[in-house]
Structures are given as structure tokens and as C-alpha cells.
Design brief:
The structure is a single chain. The protein is built from five helices and eight strands. By secondary structure, the protein is of the alpha/beta class. A hairpin with an 8-residue loop joins strand 1 and strand 2.
Length: about 160
Amino acid sequence: MTSYCDYLFTGGQLIDGSGEDARFADVAIKGEKIVAIGIGLSQSYVAGTTFDITGSVISPGFIDLHTHSDLTALINPRMESSIHQGVTTEMVGNCGMSVGLMRSSPQFEVERRFTERAGVNIDWADIGSFARRVEASGIAKQNPQSSVCTILFATILQSLC
């Protein structure tokens, strides 16, 4: 029986993050989900788009555990600088610095000036309202098949204290 998928990647070397050795495998994707991984999927799947990735590696998105891309999310919601490197999830604020924490405190003066020079109106008061601003910027709506980059706020507990 033939199944349908939106995207079929064939001939690639799969590194899946499990710690197992790389292996050759095809990957079928329907919507936002991987529906099959295996050899010879072109025999059992009809794809909207097929990519021959022979000679390339295919892997899940990478998690970057320490970035300062919280401002980038407002300037460029597509987050291409991360996406082009395979990063799909970023952790911001885990060092205690985040533009989401800019209050009237002088310790954030440099970040405040940089943010204003970038043309971003600082209209948030705390990490919660900053997170809502990032969400409203459309980061989750920018080409969700390939360009969603989730930003996690490690500093959210600080805003509750």
C-alpha cells in the first residue's frame, strides 16, 4: 500500500541523536511530523517533494543551550542565522542576561541602547510581557515547515521573584 507524505528525503546518512552510529536512511515527513524512517521509502511513499540528499547528513534540529537571540527574534522572526545552522531550539537568558529583563536598571543600559538602535520599541516590563511580544512578532508563524525556531526563557523564574 502506498502512503502520501509532503517531503521525502532519500539517500542521506541519518544521525538521529540517539548515540547510535550514523546509518543510511530515507525520511518521510507529513505536516510537521516524521512519519517514517527506513531504507527504500520511495517504494512505499508518494511525496509532494522528494529531495535526493545522497552524500549529505540528515538529523533532527539542534538545541543551542546558550544564545542571546532573544533580540534577534524581534528583529528577524525567521531566525535564518540559526535555522541555516540546523538550530531549531534556543535557550536564552540562562546566564542571567536577556533583553526580556530590561527594566530601569543600569545593568542593562548597553542592551537597552543596542535594542533601541536596532529599531525595536521596548514596550515590555518583564520577561512575561517580553515572551508575549516575541510570540506576537510572528516567530511561530514564519514558514513553520522549515523556519520555526523555539526560544526558551531560562529566566522566567527570575520574573516571578
